[in-house]
Structure formats: C-alpha cells, structure tokens
Amino acid sequence: MSAPARVEDLLRECAPQVLGALARRYGRFGACEDAVQEALLAAAVQWPDEGVPANPRGWLVTVASRRLVDLTRSEEARRRREETVAAMPVPDEPPPAEDDTLTLLFLCCHPELSAASQVALTLRAVGGLTTAEIARAFLVPEATMAQRISRAKQRIKASGARFRMPPEPEQADRLRVVLHVLYLIFNEGYTASSGPDLQRNDLTAEAIRLTRAVHALLPGEGEVAGLLALMLLTDARRPARTGADGALIPLAEQDRARWHTESIVEGVALVSESLARSELGPYQLQAAIAAVHAEAPSMAATDWPQILVLYRILERISPNPTVTLNSAVAVAMVEGPRAGLAVLDTLTGSLPEHHRLDATRAHLLEMAGETGAARRHYERAARATASIPERRYLEGRLRALGN
C-alpha cells in the first residue's frame, strides 16, 4: 500500500474519534464537523510529505480545536460564543480513550433526517469522506451535496439533539436505523442505481468498514453480525460480476472460482454463530440465503428448497415487496416459472415502475417459454433502469430472444 493510501486509511479511522472528542468537549456538532474536516484536509496534505506524527489522533484533535477557535472568531454573529470557546484552552492532554463511533452514528442517523441526509452525513462525519467524494459517489454536484449536509446539520441543531447515546429505550430503534443506513450505502455501492459503472467499490468498502466497526463495539448484537455477514458474502461475488469491459455477468454465468474465498469463510462463520445465539432477524436470514448461494458449486447445484424456506421465514418476520420479488425466483426454481410468476402478480401496484419487477418477470416468462411477453418486459426494464451496465445486459437478453 502506498504512503498516501496508508494516510487515507488512517484518517478515516481517526475521523469519528476526533469528531467525537471535539463534540463531547465543545458541543456544536456542525461547527465541530467543519473543523474536523479542515484538520483532515491539512493532514492529508502534510503527512505524506512530512511523515505521520507520533500521536496522529492527538495531532488532529489539536488542529481541529484550533480550527474551531478560528471558525468561531470569524463569525461576527457568534461573538458571544467566541468568547466562550476561545477562552477554552486547546487540549494538551491525550484525547479520551473511549470510542465515540457509535454515538456519532446514532447522531448522524437521527430520525429527524431524511434517509438521503442520513447517508450523506454518515459518510462525511463517520466515514471521513469529503463532500466532493460523496457527491461523486452519488452522481450529484458537489454544491448540492454540500447543501444536503449543511441542511442535515442544521436540522440536528434545531432538533436539540445532544452528542450522547440515546436513552436506553430508544437504542434498539436507533440501531435499526443505523443498520439500514449502512445497508443503503452498501447496496448503492454493490449495484449503483445509475451511471456507467455497475459497482462503486469505494462505497461497499466503506459500508463494510463501518459495519465492522459497529460489530466490534456491539459483538453481541445478532443483527449487526448478520448485516456484516450479508455484506461480506454478497461482496465476495464482486470479482466475477463484471467482465473486462464492465459488462454485467448474471449469477448463473459467473465463474465462482473468482469469488473471494476469505470473505465467504468469514461471512459464513459470522452468520452461523449469530443464528446459533441470537434472536432471528432479517439481516441474519438474508445472510443465510447468501451463504447457501456462496457454498453452491453452481446455479443448478444450489439448494433452492432451503433458500425458499429461508425466504418464507423472512417474509413472515419482515414482509416487504423487495423480499417478495426476490422470493419469486426461488419459487420458480423449486416449483416452476408459473408459480414464480404467480408470486410476482401479488406485487401489482407495490413496486410501480421499478425495473427489477419487469426484469424478473421477463426472466421467468423466458423460463416458461413465453418469449413474446418476455421481450416486452425486457424492453420495459431496459427503458426504466438508469444503470448503463444493467440496460446493456437487458438489451442483450432482448436481442437473444430475437424478433
């Protein structure tokens, strides 16, 4: 790994801890977040040339604290706070040993924020990504992403939220939101909703890194382990999902020898342990389904009856249209394509204009030998998707069916 890459990894690791130290000391999450971003930028410029300081986290806390004082002084309207903050000495003592990553995640995933804002703020404050990096990941102008992050911080301030763990009765619900945000980040990286690339590896890597951090802090939470296992088992297929030209390769045609063995081993171990000792949850079940796929030597040799059983349990404890859509393929593989199509019929109106419903229906119609209907749905799916690799794949299926 190159020196700049090592520095980048170190800064991402330190970012939530430094922000936690400042927010705990000064409050004012928004101003602290701005100050930490400036300190991270300064380190990114200086450290590769001058070397990493002996105490990188302490260096960042000191620089960020000075930036916070400077920022406060520069705001005329905040003169009163300047007197308060500027009077505080820059801390010489080592930063607190406690890890505030989980507290930060709970704050960034505050229920007052929209899902888009939760994702953006999490990547910025906890992931340590710059606004430009987040904007590039979601294909929006940097100014738009800056406004989104700024509004999120203003909303947190207006809500009166403090930098501390939510009360015990709220923690389970807030953890579910945190896991959902991490899941959204991973999904956007695994199958980008738009643009020229099928995958955005920086987002999947960041989602796995953050989920791994949450798992280290909450090793007894079965759903945290389940989500980490799901991410690892799904991401293990990444090397085989695209060809040299970036074209999408469906699961049935992937070279499974290219799947990442270490991720599969770790994911299977995680989900096996969590299923044995924790209350069953939707992430654990999805990870169990991914594990069955990961351990199958081929599409034909996959244990589809077991996958169908797992989907039926998942639909019972966490019913939603996406689960039903995915289960239709398992039903088709076990009971035939007509049975799978009957499952899709139950989704009428539930997934309006979602291209995956048309794509799945086209696939099952093709299995059933109804090529004319399959062509119509492949065509509709290709028109609806904003992902260029997905569109090219669907157009390829359309051509393969002929006129």
Automatic annotation (TrEMBL):
<dbReference type="GO" id="GO:0006352">
    <property type="term" value="P:DNA-templated transcription initiation"/>
</dbReference>
<protein>
    <submittedName>
        <fullName>Sigma-70 family RNA polymerase sigma factor</fullName>
    </submittedName>
</protein>
<keyword id="KW-0804">Transcription</keyword>
<dbReference type="Pfam" id="PF08281">
    <property type="entry name" value="Sigma70_r4_2"/>
</dbReference>
<dbReference type="Pfam" id="PF04542">
    <property type="entry name" value="Sigma70_r2"/>
</dbReference>
<dbReference type="GO" id="GO:0003677">
    <property type="term" value="F:DNA binding"/>
</dbReference>
<dbReference type="InterPro" id="IPR014284">
    <property type="entry name" value="RNA_pol_sigma-70_dom"/>
</dbReference>
<dbReference type="InterPro" id="IPR013249">
    <property type="entry name" value="RNA_pol_sigma70_r4_t2"/>
</dbReference>
<feature type="domain" description="DUF6596">
    <location>
        <begin position="174"/>
        <end position="274"/>
    </location>
</feature>
<feature type="domain" description="RNA polymerase sigma factor 70 region 4 type 2">
    <location>
        <begin position="105"/>
        <end position="156"/>
    </location>
</feature>
<dbReference type="GO" id="GO:0016987">
    <property type="term" value="F:sigma factor activity"/>
</dbReference>
<dbReference type="InterPro" id="IPR013324">
    <property type="entry name" value="RNA_pol_sigma_r3/r4-like"/>
</dbReference>
<dbReference type="Pfam" id="PF20239">
    <property type="entry name" value="DUF6596"/>
</dbReference>
<dbReference type="InterPro" id="IPR007627">
    <property type="entry name" value="RNA_pol_sigma70_r2"/>
</dbReference>
<dbReference type="InterPro" id="IPR036388">
    <property type="entry name" value="WH-like_DNA-bd_sf"/>
</dbReference>
<keyword id="KW-0805">Transcription regulation</keyword>
<dbReference type="InterPro" id="IPR013325">
    <property type="entry name" value="RNA_pol_sigma_r2"/>
</dbReference>
<keyword id="KW-0731">Sigma factor</keyword>
<dbReference type="InterPro" id="IPR046531">
    <property type="entry name" value="DUF6596"/>
</dbReference>
<feature type="domain" description="RNA polymerase sigma-70 region 2">
    <location>
        <begin position="10"/>
        <end position="76"/>
    </location>
</feature>
<comment type="similarity">
    <text>Belongs to the sigma-70 factor family. ECF subfamily.</text>
</comment>
